[in-house]
Amino acid sequence: MSRLVVVSNRVADPRKAAAGGLAVALGDALNTTGGLWFGWSGTVVEGGMPGEGELHVQQAGKVTLATVDLSAEDHAGYYLGYSNGVLWPVFHLRLDLARFDAGYISAYRRVNRLFARLLMTQLKPGDILWIHDYHLIPLAAELRTLGCTHRIGFFLHIPLPPQQVLAAIPQHEWLMRAMFAYDLLGFQSEADLQNFSRYVQAEAGAVDLGENRFRAFNRTVRAGAFPIGIDVDEFAALTHAKEGVDMYERMKAEYSRRKLLIGVERLDYSKGLPQRLRAFKTLLQRYPENLRSATLIQIASPSREDMGTYTDLLQELESLCGAINGDFGELDWMPVRYMHRNVARKRLPGLYRVARVALVTPLRDGMNLVAKEFVAAQDPADPGVLVLSRFAGAAEQLQDALLVNPYDIDGSADTIQQALQMPLQERQIRHQKLLRNIRTQDVHWWRQTFLQALGDGARSQETM
Question: Is 0.85 surpassed by the pTM of this model?
Fold first, then answer.
């Protein structure tokens, strides 16, 4: 059986429960045959030479963890600059926030070459490589240049934008060519897959060979939609574990007279947080029966706060929360409880379970696993309601949620009111369908389906 090699920007120890469902699923696959997980160590070396980094190798059970240090210059250009200053905003349809500095792409290419060079020293004949996310799009091309003939798959965890948006990236042609170094490309949704198909045919003159196979640059790549899921049983177990139960009991007692709404995400402009708060404010204005009754707990975990865009967003959120509480709050009731800090993953299921409504309303998202975690944590006898953005990848699967356009503030307020007033029987029926869906296409299904597709396809022998 082939050994699995997982490559991602950050590496997690699969033995640690706190690593989360994705790390658990990948750890299961790696442990099956003994595997390698390769990526950045998280260490930034001040004064380090660009394009150089020390390799650290350690065992985590049957899994080998191989990590690379980055110089400060490489980290600034590859991670903060190109990955999160160019690709992240463009892929989330925010061209206005992209910083097209020529030095960033040089660092991005340099780090991917560094990863390829060091990864080659760790590979064995017959290995299957699975590379993850936007930080490492050109890694397969760099490996091919070094003579790598292994089967290589790539999964993009964030959304792929339409052709004309992608084409705005300087040197996007180089990125597109790099995608054809893979044997299999995985996307979160059918919409992403369609965007890829239109992009490569329009920009590269790729030939559609049928069955989502495309030919360009003397290579053939297969693409597919593989929506990522969660480990439903693992998350349900967390719901009934001590930390989850404690959180549920405490919040239930504190908010026994309130209707609790919950939002949980990283602080990021893609998550639609200002729009969500404005919709909640409109809810209070249009439906005054929610005054002194509905409370929104909004958790926005810190994220990339050394970038100015996030500082501006933080200030906007604090201003909006203060204005809503100032205009509507009472001595014994604050409409918004805003937390700008991390909450332990073991406590989140209890918080989800006590909520009447979850607001998962990003402006653009690859999948959004919070939506699926909320469903998994609910009491089937008295479930809460999921209000979900139509622009989240999860919306393709979770059609029984209440879907909203987060840009439509009034429409979102009306939908939140519908969720708060939804009868028990309808809540139960919707939850049953949602739970059945996330169980059918869970994280293990995602991993098995992708790896089977990667193993089944015959890689073209032509080089780029």
Answer: yes
